[in-house]
Every structure is written in C-alpha cells, then in structure tokens.
Amino acid sequence: MSSPQSVALALPVTDEALAERLRSRMALVEDALAGHVRGRTAYVSEAASHLLAAGGKRFRPLLVLLAAEAGPRPDAPEVLTAACVVEITHLGSLYHDDVMDEAALRRGADSANSRYDNLVAILTGDFLFARSSELTAELGADAVRIQAQTFTRLVEGQILETVKPGPGEDPLAHYLEVVAGKTGSLIATSARYGARFSGAGPEIEEALAAYGEIVGAAFQLSDDILDIASESDESGKTPGTDLREGVPTLPVLMAQASSDPADARLLELLGAPLVDDDLHAEALDLLRKHPAMDQARSYVVGEAQRAKALLGVLPEGPVRAALEAFADLVALRTA
Questions:
Q1: Fewer CB near the last or first residue (10 Å), C or N of the chain?
Q2: What is the CATH number of the domain that holds 312?
Q3: What is the pLDDT of residues 261-282, one digit of tens each?
Q4: Is the separation of the CB atoms in 54 and 35 below 8 Å?
C-alpha cells in the first residue's frame, strides 16, 4: 500500500490542503496502477510492470486529479479510473517509443527492448493499450470515443515523427504537429477527464482540455531548449543529445529557417551528422549563441501565457494558482 507521505507531486502546489488531497489520491492511483498492469502470467506481469516500477513523474494522472478539483466531485471513483487510463496509455507509448528510438535506458533502468527484445516490448505496449481500453469502457461510451480520438492523434504523431516534411511543407509546422499529437493530445485528455468525471461544466472541461494541450506541448518544447542550453551538472542530461542524434527540435528548426549569411557555418553543421565530438561541440556552441535560442524561449513563454489565459473560467483559488504555476514552470524551467 502506497503512503501519501511518500508521493512527490510533479506539479507546483503551494496550498498544503490541496497538496495533501492530491498526495492521498495519487497514493490510491499508484496502488491501482500496480494491479491494472498485471497479466494472467508472471512473465507478462513482469514485462508490463517494468517501466511502471522504474518510476516517473506521473504528471498525467496528477493533472487528472488536479483538474477534478474544478468540479463538485473531485473524489469520484471515475476520476481515479481515468487517472489510471491516461498513465497506462502513456506507459504503453513508452514501450513503443523505446523500440522506435532503439533506446537502451528509460528512467534510469534498462528499456523494455533492452531487457527483453523488440517483439516483447511492442506486444507489452499493446497489452497496456488494451488494458487502458478495458478501463476506459468502465467510464462509458463517451470516454471510449475520447480515448480513441486521443490514441489516434498520439499514434499519428509517432508516425509523423518518422517522416520528413513533404515538399513545400514548413518543417517547423510539421514538428509542432508531431509534438501536439505525441505529447499534447494525452495531456489534454488528462485535464478533460478530470473536469468531466468530477462534474465540472462543459465550459470548464473545454478550457482545461485546451490548457492541457498547450502546456503539454510546451513542456516538450522546453525540453528542446534545455537539450541545447543546459549544462550536464544542471539538468542531469548530456547537452546536445538530440543535436547529436539528428533529432529536429525547436531551436534547431528556427535556426535552420535563417537566411543570414553569417549563419552559413552553423547551417552547414546542422545539415550533416554530428557524430564527431569536435563538430558537435562547435555546433552546440554556435547554436547557444544564435538568436534562435531566444526566439524559441519567447515562443514557449507565449504558449504558457496562452494556456494561463484559458484559466479565467476558474475561480481564483489554489486550483487555478497551481495550474498557473505549472504553466510558468514550463516557460521558465531549467531542468
């Protein structure tokens, strides 16, 4: 049985009464998740619980619980079920992500494809998606429709990530569509579920879903900035990992849109594989000094402000303050 005192909240909640309620409910979610990922055999149970046991911020289920505070029934059992739905869906996507990325580690532990193999990792992801669908069915036909639409967007985002923009297509617009599908869609649904199953009205539900989509995508975009800007001792990450792997990110795409002749060397470096340590270091240095970094930061700050503006439908209080604080954290985070 999880203890509320052992639960760390991934969202900034300064109101202690609200924080305590969220910790208590998150402890219930943790216990429920452990049961939901069990299969009929020990092998399936072990594989499906591998990434769950590795930890994680549990941001999506926490957002369900926080959004539920906007309704009259925040402790409704459907809210807890919905929190499990979004986290299990997220976990399933991580198994598939690791296969696509050929990742060796996830959350500091062996990735499922490393521990088992690609086939088991893919099928375990499928198992988790199936389990999340079973739980969604308990929430009614409307929830099944929302979940199906969310899953469609999530998978389409994953597919689009593997293909380059078509002729005449804006690479930045293509990338933002990928981020909205892969990351924004499920976070939007997390906020929507919390509002809906706690009995909040349609206006609040739609506003929180829109907020979740914007903040979710902005969180990924702030990761892009940190990949370039952070020092390893600050963030715990190796700077320029995405850059080395040729993964398009917000600052890189904004730099590549430059037509300034002074950027010729940077564009040359960004147009080729950066496997050489010296070339990678040079590209990282040039990119850190490029106006694209401030442009990317301004974009994320603008998105956070756009998300906060949607919260006007909520009364002033600790719930709205926590949601506003999270948008600010996304805009200004350093780790």
A1: N
A2: 1.10.600.10
A3: 999 999 999 998 898 999 999 9
A4: no
Nearest one of 217, 224, 254, 255 to 240, comparing CA atoms: 224
Domain assignment present for residue 207? The answer is: no
What distance lies between CA 119 and its chain's CA centroid?
24
Rg of the chain, C-alpha, whole Å: 20
Which of 251, 254, 281, 257 minimizes the C-alpha distance to 269?
Answer: 281
Contact 238, 281 (CB under 8 A): no
Number of compact structural domains in the chain: 2
Instruction: Report the C-alpha gap between 285 and 77 in whole angstroms.
Output: 51
pLDDT higher than 50, residue 233: no
Do 293 and 157 share a structural domain?
no
- In tens, the pLDDT along 177-209 reads 999 999 999 999 999 999 999 999 999 999 999
DSSP helix/strand/coil, 106: strand
Domain boundary among the residues 165, 200, 235 is at: 200
Which structural domain range is residue 219 located in? 213-335
